[in-house]
Amino acid sequence: HPLIKGKKVNFKYATQIKSKPITIKIFCNFSYQIKKNYQTYLLNDFSKKFKIKDKKVKLIFTSSVNPYSSN
């Protein structure tokens, strides 16, 4: 992914949270600024790697919260 505000996008991890439709939650910084074409790339890559055919796949991007920060 290209830089956002001069910073690298860090994808922490992804997990499947639902099976119908297949829903994958991806934790990263700048979750609301992930470009649409990169979302499509990830969707196609997940479908290819996990051999998902003829099923709807939904991606949800969210930011993780640091429990140790003093905010």
Commentary on this structure:
This protein has one helix and three strands, in the order E-E-H-E. With 71 residues, the protein is of the alpha+beta class. The protein has a three-stranded mixed beta sheet, with helices on one face. Strand 2 (22-28), helix 1 and strand 3 form a beta-alpha-beta unit. It is globular and about 45 Å long.
Describe the secondary structure blueprint for this structure.
Blueprint: E1 11-19, E2 22-28, H1 36-49, E3 57-62
Share in β-strands:
25-35%
Q: Sketch the topology as an H/E string, one letter per element.
A: EEHE
List the total number of helices.
1
Quaternary assembly: single chain
**SS class:** alpha+beta
Query: Which geometry do the CA atoms define?
Result: globular
Give the strand order, joined by hyphens, for the main sheet: 1-2-3
| Unreliable segments of 5+ consecutive residues | none
Number of strands: 3
* Sheet of most strands: 3 strands, mixed
Q: Span between N and C termini? A: 28 Å
- The percent of residues in helical segments reads 10-25%
Average pLDDT confidence is 88
Compute the gyration radius: what is it? Answer: 14 Å
